Amino acid sequence: MDMIWTGIVKAVDMLVSFDREIFSIAWMTVKITGVATLIGLCVGIPAGLGLSVSRFPGRRLIIALINTGMGLPPVVVGLFVALFLWRMGPLGSLHLIYTPAAMVIAQVLIVVPIIAGLSLAAFQNVDPSALLQARALGASKTQALLVVLKESRLPQMAAVMAGFGGAISEVGAVLMVGGNITGQTRVLTTAIVQETRMGRFEVAIALSLVLLVLSFAVNAFLTYIQQKGALEWRLHTWK
Amino acid sequence: METPYLEMKGVRHSYGPLRVLDVPLFSVTKGECLVVFGPNGSGKSTLLRIASLLERPGRGRIFYRGGEVSGKTGLDVRRRFVLLLQRPYLFRGNVEKNVLFGLKVRGTPNPELRKRLDKAARMFSLGPLLDRDARKLSGGEAQRVNLARAFILEPDILFLDEPFSALDAPTREDLIHELKRVLKETGQTTVFVTHHREEAAFLATRVAVLVGGRILQVGETERVFASPANDEVARLVGHDTLLKGTVEERRGELLVIVHAGLRILAAGDAREGSEVLLFLRPEDVLLARRKFESSIRNWFEGRVVEISPGDRLVLVSLDCGFLLKARLTRAGVDELGLGVGETAWAGIKASSLRALPAGAENGD
């Protein structure tokens, strides 16, 4: 118990003194996760929209695959990305293994199914007459689809949050393809694993606090956007 | 003759194996309020979606001011129209945002937006509602916002799909009067779909009767309501079947029809010796205690079998050897002192009785 307390005190001390290493690791995490989430959004939301408004053979199979992908074990993703990017692998000539780019690729693969799946569900929850109403008032096809996106803003933001959360908390895949190289591919999660293994618990705790604060800040911001203009639920009942 | 605003030629449409629409010709002229009137499931909404270019017909061509609409011109022409749905879908955001939606997607510049918003808000007294959350409005308020967001676009043709059918009766009446006033003020060309006879009669300058995906009759409102083309239309526009008879003689504009020894004078066109069905609106029957001298040519004596109070008027059923229904005011019934089992005389003008060929009973 004592160790945990001294660990926390030391961790807070490191944070308020702006420990350089901790903040460079945090910054690397923000960059990799941010880029991966953005790419995930650019792929996942159009995929969700496309799947919700179109009908083609094999559509259900794709949806089933996406839903499976939402629970994809990150280490499996890590393994396959590593195999492909390995020096001897099919994409070895790109020299991406143990670079931040490799970590982004792995995270995108983890995040896209999560965002696409939740986004599809969000679109499918919009009343189909929204689309007809928009077109009936003169919206072009693209404008009408934008309306549907706006109408589903609330659950769409949940998809963004889930995607970001999946990326920032992930450790297995980024460790395998990034390698946890100091100053290059070390991120908060991989650093926490490393420091814990080495018994430097106070550093691990400090890193964990940063991770939690970071996660909270991003989600608080996204929640603010999400809840703006949300309808209130009122349950007036007897007991 | 003036080129119609909109013309549909040879339009056929099916959902799967089900043919829902078969309309050889449908046209809308500038300034009119054309009411498409028909029972539920007759293809009215499909007709409206196709006419407003939201759905492509399986077959047929559509012309706008004489020019054929194609995939290329589709959006431009569509933007001259507005279709309002039965259940208005109001977008997330406040009322103002909803009212401005159509102008925004058309890229209308800001000063113009303000000007039009003021005008539309005044037209439907939306002033106090503009800042309200659009999804927290009552049904009547929502429908006023819906009308405003259509009128603000000043469309060439406004299409309305049963806009008032989900509302309670007083709200519906208020809105329909409001709509009629605005239509008159603006001269807006309108196509209005409804299954309500009263709405159709009140708003229409022209009526198209749609049954089973086919237009059975189209013409001036008065004409369609007074002289339905066949028995199906007759029943839809509020005529009751009276009885079946044989044409004995043609007398000028009128026909003498024989039914069980009774001689009845009616309006219509049929060959001598042919079978006809007689139609009548219950409100065209005059009830009296005894016959009196007047221009009324048909008098029937009968016994009152039922008096049923209705929405506004009372329906009195009379057994005259055939069942005759008369609709009159509560005061009228009281004045006559009518009760079930008593006898009364029913007077019907020959022009109110419509004779239609009995053979037409089973469709086309």
Please sum up the structure shown.
The complex is a heterodimer of chains A (239) and B (364). With 239 residues, chain A is mainly α.
Describe the structure.
The complex is a heterodimer of chains A (239) and B (364). Chain A is 74% helix and 0% strand. Chain A has a single domain, classed as MetI-like (MetI-like fold, Orthogonal Bundle), CATH 1.10.3720. In chain A, helix 3 packs across helix 5 and helix 10 runs antiparallel to helix 11. Chain A has helices spanning 2-16, 20-53, 59-69, 74-85, 100-124, 129-136, 141-151, 153-168, 172-178, 188-197, 201-227. With 364 residues, chain B is of the alpha+beta class. Helices cover 26% and strands 35% of the residues of chain B. In chain B, strands 6-7-8-3-9-10 form a six-stranded mixed beta sheet, sandwiched between helices. A five-stranded mixed barrel of chain B has the order 11-12-13-20-14. In chain B, strands 15-19-16-17-18 form a five-stranded antiparallel beta sheet. In chain B, strand 11 and strand 12 form a beta hairpin. The longest helix of chain B has 18 residues, at 169-186. Chain B starts with 5 loop residues before the first strand and ends in a 7-residue tail after the last strand. Residues 360-364 of chain B have low confidence and may be disordered. The A-B interface holds A 127, 129-130, 132-140, 143, 147, 150-151, 153, 229, 231 and B 52, 54, 75, 78-79, 82-85, 87-89, 91-93, 101-102, 105-106, 133, 135-136, 149-150, 153.
Mean of pLDDT of chain A: 90
pLDDT below 50 for ≥5 consecutive residues: which ranges of chain B?
A: 360-364
Sketch the topology of chain A as an H/E string, one letter per element: HHHHHHHHHHH
**Apparent shape of chain A:** globular
β-strand percent of chain B reads: 35-45%
Which superfamily, in CATH terms, is the homologous superfamily of chain A?
A: MetI-like
Overall 3D shape of chain B:
globular
Name the average pLDDT of chain B. Answer: 89
Helicity of chain B, in percent? 25-40%
What is the CATH top level name of chain A? Mainly Alpha
Number of domains of chain A: 1
Query: Topology as H/E string of chain B?
Result: EEEHEEHEHHHEHEHEEHHEEEEEEEEHEE
CA-CA gap between termini of chain B: 29 Å
Strand order across the biggest sheet of chain B?
A: 6-7-8-3-9-10
Q: Share of helix among residues of chain A?
A: over 70%
Ranges of chain A where pLDDT stays below 50 over 5 or more residues in a row are none
User: C-alpha Rg of chain A, in Å?
Assistant: 21 Å
Most extensive chain-chain interface:
A-B, 19 and 25 residues
